[in-house]
Specification:
By secondary structure, the chain is α+β, with helices and mostly antiparallel strands. Helices cover about 50% and strands about 15% of the residues. It has 20 helices and eleven strands. Strands 3, 4, 5, 6, 7, 8 and 9 form a seven-stranded mixed sheet that branches. Helix 2 packs across helix 3 and helix 16 packs antiparallel against helix 17. The model has no long low-confidence stretch (mean pLDDT about 95). The protein binds flavin-adenine dinucleotide. Flavin-adenine dinucleotide binds next to strand 3, strand 5, helix 14 and helix 15.
């Protein structure tokens, strides 16, 4: 008999040497969660959420939500347009789990260390499913934009700040809570948003009629979207709601859902605005700076999501090798397996540390011009590195399980398929590398970055060769600059000890190009102990 009562004594053989199914994980007990542990006003909430999101039950909901893809219902039974999406019930349960526990709202409703708490919530939610993270992230990230504009602050902000989920499709005033999306990318250009062609016919009060299309619009059941369209004064940002102010459905037609490689629980659509009602948000002609305020926050969530994806993959691999024997030894005691996993574990801890560092910079930015400036460049640096590391980490972790890692039931194939996503959206790699350079053109940002780099070099002498290189080569290749800056900033974000020492050793002193290649010289047992026991 095994852990879940399944029979091991079969007619032709006995099932042996197969690890127990991974059960419930206490996610907030992970030592890498340290920056969020013990925070007054958040600690108990985060600890409770870590048990919910880390449960086998939540992961099962994630499996169901991904295996049963959302379907478009463009018309009702009599041919009238409704443009709705049918989701599997597991999707709604996951949305409820996350939104009721404040994955989107808590950063704003409990602002003392709110962004650090948000990073922890986002990371833990991603263990259950990453697809639902998309609408939650956009609902979180829209808040600064809604807050800055008086009419949205009055009419739309309150619904974004409710820690609840209302899956009904009806006008906002009839709903208990709202979700938001963003629609910028068009067929002819996603990175280069000035190539947008959607047109807005704007009245004196900023109300507009939109004609055009968006090539990617995720979470199309959101109650409203921030979008970009051209008016006389240039490219502006508009809020376009699912329902018009007169409580009729808005003319946002969903053409089809994307057939994506992963992220299956999350519907991503192609839409057309056919005279859709909208209203301008922000200054006319300043659409990109307005919506970038939202994108800055979604980029932060990409870091948290990818960090969690790596940690989950490593945890599942460590669970497996702790119970599986090959060549008379538990796999975890085989030196090469230990080296491989220690290297992956280091990467996942550095990613979580960077996510928390960005979060802390968001929390401190309001009270410190220096931190606000530093945060502007820290965020894309973290996004560049962490999101690019995820696919490789997940692939190697998958291999640690052997053949079963390649089988859907292990959960790793779903995680692997979704792994490249955070690097693609919200600014693909090259665009982010160039954004880092653009940010450093700003004197205040450059100064804050230089100060931080100098401080880190002084505090951690082992990393000083790299901080020196960064100071002397501001015009280096943007991708090289981004990756070296990330290695330095992760060293700073990690606490002193075996993980930080291992990180500097493997990423700076003796890098190898494949995981585990040089890990014999780090304290692998200490690093792996941190992935166990929670
Ligand atoms: C699953 C999924 C969901 C999405 N959901 C949404 C959504 O809800 N809303 C939304 O607006 N968008 C969404 N997107 C779109 C996404 O943000 C864009 O695909 C992304 O911004 C890239 O734009 P693009 O596809 O037009 O590629 P392009 O802009 O054509 O870029 C192609 C490649 O060229 C690189 N590149 C661009 N400029 C340069 C340069 N100057 N130098 C060197 N390289 C460069 C890019 O880094 C990229 O690798 C989604 C995408 C995916 C995959």
């Amino acid at each position: 008999m095994s852990d879940n009562g399944s029979r091991t004594d079969l007619a032709t053989h006995e099932v042996t040497n197969q690890p127990p199914l991974p059960g419930d994980f206490d996610l907030f007990g992970d030592p890498a969660m340290a920056p969020a542990q013990g925070l007054p006003g958040h600690d108990e909430h985060l600890a409770a959420f870590g048990k919910l999101a880390g449960s086998a039950h939540a992961r099962e909901k994630g499996r169901l939500a991904n295996e049963n893809k959302p379907k478009l219902r463009a018309f009702d039974a009599r041919g009238r347009r409704i443009d709705e999406i049918d989701y599997h019930p597991a999707y709604h349960e996951l949305m409820q789990l996350g939104l009721q526990n404040g994955v989107a709202a808590r950063a704003w409703t409990h602002p003392a260390n709110g962004q650090v708490a948000h990073a922890a919530l986002g990371q833990m939610m991603a263990w259950a499913d990453t697809g639902v993270g998309c609408p939650m992230t956009m609902t979180y990230a829209v808040v600064p934009v809604l807050r800055d504009e008086s009419w949205t602050a009055e009419q739309w902000l309150p619904g974004a700040l409710v820690a609840d989920y209302d899956d009904t499709c009806q006008p906002k005033d009839k709903k208990t809570a709202l979700t938001f999306g963003m629609a910028m990318t068009e067929k002819q250009g996603g990175s280069d948003l000035r190539a947008n062609t959607t047109q807005a016919k704007v009245g004196a009060d900023g109300e507009a009629e939109l004609i055009g299309h968006k090539w990617f619009c995720s979470a199309p059941m959101s109650d409203a979207f921030l979008t970009l369209a051209y008016e006389d004064k240039g490219l502006s940002c508009f809020l376009v709601p699912k329902w018009q102010p007169d409580n009729t459905r808005n003319a946002i037609e969903i053409q089809r859902l994307k057939d994506k490689m992963g992220d299956h629980s999350n519907a991503s659509s192609e839409i057309e605005y056919r005279g859709a009602w909208a209203k301008r948000v922000g200054e006319p002609g300043r659409g990109i700076p307005t919506i970038i305020n939202m994108a800055h926050h979604t980029r932060f969530d990409c870091v948290s999501g990818s960090a969690a994806g790596m940690r989950k993959a490593v945890k599942l691999a460590v669970h497996h090798v702790s119970h599986r024997t090959a060549f008379q030894r538990k796999l975890i005691d085989q030196p090469l397996m230990q080296n491989t996993l220690a290297d992956l574990a280091l990467e996942s801890e550095a990613a979580m540390a960077l996510s928390f560092a960005v979060a802390a910079s968001f929390d401190a930015a309001a009270g410190s011009a220096h931190t606000a400036a530093f945060s502007r460049v820290l965020t894309p640096i973290a996004k560049y590195w962490v999101c690019k590391r995820q696919p490789s980490v997940v692939a190697e972790a998958l291999e640690c399980l052997g053949g079963v890692g390649f089988v859907e039931e292990s959960g790793l194939p779903n995680l692997f398929r979704t792994s490249p996503l955070n690097s693609v959206w919200e600014g693909s790699g090259n665009v982010i590398a160039l954004d880092i350079q653009r940010a450093l053109q700003d004197k205040a940002v450059a100064l804050a970055f230089a100060d931080e780099i100098t401080r880190i070099g002084d505090e951690i002498p082992a990393i000083a060769p790299l901080t020196k290189w960064l100071s002397e080569n501001p015009a280096a290749d943007p991708r090289l600059f981004a990756e070296r800056a990330a290695i330095v900033l992760a060293s700073d974000a990690l606490s002193a000890g075996s993980v930080r020492d291992g990180w500097i050793n493997l990423r700076l002193m003796a890098p190898s190009h494949i995981w585990g290649g040089n890990a014999a010289q780090i304290d692998g047992a200490a690093i792996l102990a941190r992935v166990q026991g929670w």
